[in-house]
């Protein structure tokens, strides 16, 4: 959800009118981040009927997608791994699949590389997602890009002392399927 939230803001700052949305309820970590910035993400089911173009962000398995998404409506896919989202299914989509631990790293790079101003809310969401996905930047799949973007985002924030502890140390436990 952090990557969707961040990319939506990025596109809005580049004169597009996206809606960040997700299917189902946010997991505990996403809910904590959303509550922390006093924001919400709308239900994607509502938007499917009015959207002409769909961007899939941070979904690596077909089972994560609604069956109501028509592959021809998907115009872009941004992900940190390529497990099942295949070019032969989404023939109209451009793919940006990067070897990083967190898709939020890719979104943060978009802001940084284009000198696009990022809100504190988006920076906090992306930072939290990167830190969570990398076990506080200590997991073996953490890349230099993840570390660089976490540091860049952290420099844009005033983070409460217990922010990372609540996110990474068990107060908000990881979901079983992560």
From TrEMBL:
The keyword Hydrolase applies. Gene3D superfamilies: inorganic pyrophosphatase (n-terminal core). Its EC number is 3.6.1.1. The keyword Hydrolase applies. GO terms for molecular function: inorganic diphosphate phosphatase activity. InterPro entries: DHH_sf. Keywords: Hydrolase. This is Manganese-dependent inorganic pyrophosphatase. It comes from Candidatus Nanohalococcus occultus.
């Amino acid at each position: 959800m952090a990557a969707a939230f961040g990319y939506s803001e990025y596109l809005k700052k580049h004169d597009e009118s996206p809606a960040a949305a997700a299917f189902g309820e946010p997991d505990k970590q996403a809910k904590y981040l959303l509550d922390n910035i006093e924001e919400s993400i709308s239900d994607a089911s509502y938007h499917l009927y009015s959207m002409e173009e769909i961007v899939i962000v941070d979904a690596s398995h077909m089972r994560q997608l609604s069956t109501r998404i028509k592959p021809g409506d998907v115009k872009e896919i941004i992900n940190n791994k390529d497990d099942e989202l295949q070019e032969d299914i989404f023939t109209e989509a451009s793919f940006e699949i990067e070897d990083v631990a967190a898709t939020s790293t890719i979104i943060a790079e978009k802001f940084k590389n284009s000198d696009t101003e990022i809100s504190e809310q988006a920076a906090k969401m992306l930072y939290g997602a990167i830190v969570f996905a990398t076990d506080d930047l200590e997991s073996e799949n953490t890349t230099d890009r993840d570390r660089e973007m976490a540091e860049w985002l952290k420099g844009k924030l005033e983070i409460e002392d217990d922010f990372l502890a609540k996110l990474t140390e068990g107060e908000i436990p990881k979901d079983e399927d992560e």
